[in-house]
Amino acid sequence: MSAASPSLTPTGTIALTVDRRRVAIATVVGTTVEWYDYFIYASAAGLVFGKLFFEPAGPAIATLLSFLTVGISFLFRPLGAFLAGHFGDRIGRRPMLVITLILMGVSTTLIGLLPTYGVIGIVAPILLILLRILQGVSAGGEWGGAVLMAVEHAPRERRGLFGAMPQIGVPIGLLLASAMLAIMNLIFPGDAFLEWGWRIPFLFSVVLVGVGYWVRRSVEESPVFEEIAARKEQTRAPIGKLFRYFAPLVILAALVFAGNNAVGYMTTGGYIQNYATNPNGPLGLDRGAVLWAVTVSSVFWLIFTFLAGWISDRIGRRTTYIIGWVLQGVFVVTLFPLVNTGNILLLGLGLVLLTTGLGLTYGAQASWYSELFPASVRFSGVSISYAIGSILGGAFAPTIATALQQATGTTVSVTLYLLGMTVIGLVATLLLRDRRGINLRPGAEEEQRRGIYAWSK
């Protein structure tokens, strides 16, 4: 019996429940592996890549260049989103998830094997950038497939909860990345960390990708895509259709994510780690202590992200977001006053408080995005909106924050930048409608096209 069957025997109901649970587990595992790989790079960029790959530029410029390599990958996320969106709307969600996972794992492992500038000169940063670009292509294609597998398998009344499953893979990925680096810092202290300690978390990606591949291969295709394929209604040029009819929606959805992503990349992009541990900076805190503080904050980010999905099934996606924007704005203002005390416990408190807003403006994203776009262009719509939002938000947030702090000599300018991005996310949210519970099947395209914007009927 197909997972999409409208009538089910008691045995079929059990099978359907088991299949949904398997899909939920697969999306969590897969996104965790993807974002572990992605964040291990960003953390290493804030901690060691400036010295290892860009040292001849001098400490300040080396830091900026290191963060620029984090941002460059975002410019290639749309390419991954376009490719995965096109083929995901034509051949299915499942194959694209496997392809993106393998691409990310290979790129990450190769980074762990790269010689440094001191060994092969200018070739080292060039190879580093090329591998980071491949990570960006993979990340751009990953998210849309994962969230659609989760949401399109979910019961209508629990889409927020199921959609939160791939979302929590992001904080879990950060947790694992930070914890691995913190452990390596203990095992390989001082120069040993620069020599070998930072490489092991990258090489460990091979194990994680093997697990993720096995889990993802075990799940069924999305029932929505199966129905599209059965009707032979795959769109020949889904991206063209998307921008012809839904360009304003893509822009607004991207701005929603940008407001969250810019703030989130203060830790996921390695900025706080670099700012707090830089021996030439104002704090000079212990690297291991800061990594553990980020790890603890990741646990709270996970909790609030999951909670947001659950809450959104009860009060709506839009309302959950609005509450999240308010909290995010408040705790953006308190972040640097706590960090700048130089007390590791207060730094950790600042990061933990920030996760409340970050979680509430991220946990409901999968279900809301999925309910905003019609079935025939849904993979393309959610993937491209996410990719554009990541460029506008997180891509160069660590670089911008570093440049602002260096230019003004104060983190007040960074706070104003993050507060401005939060307001942009709030405004975009207010211009969209909540569509909780809308029919996601391909036969309901007319319903899916109506009532998207706050001003529409």
From TrEMBL:
Keyword Cell membrane attached: yes
Cellular component, GO annotation: plasma membrane
Keyword Transmembrane helix: yes
Membrane-protein topology: Multi-pass membrane protein
Keywords per UniProt: Cell membrane, Membrane, Transmembrane, Transmembrane helix, Transport
Location in or out of the cell: Cell membrane
Main subcellular location: membrane
Gene3D superfamilies in the cross-refs: MFS general substrate transporter like domains
GO MF annotations, alphabetized: transmembrane transporter activity
InterPro entries documented for this protein: MFS (IPR011701), MFS_dom (IPR020846), MFS_trans_sf (IPR036259), Sugar_transporter_CS (IPR005829)
SUPFAM superfamilies for the chain: MFS general substrate transporter (SSF103473)
PANTHER family cross-referenced by the UniProt entry: SHIKIMATE TRANSPORTER
Name of this protein: MFS transporter
Phylogenetic placement of the source organism: Bacteria, Bacillati, Actinomycetota, Actinomycetes, Micrococcales
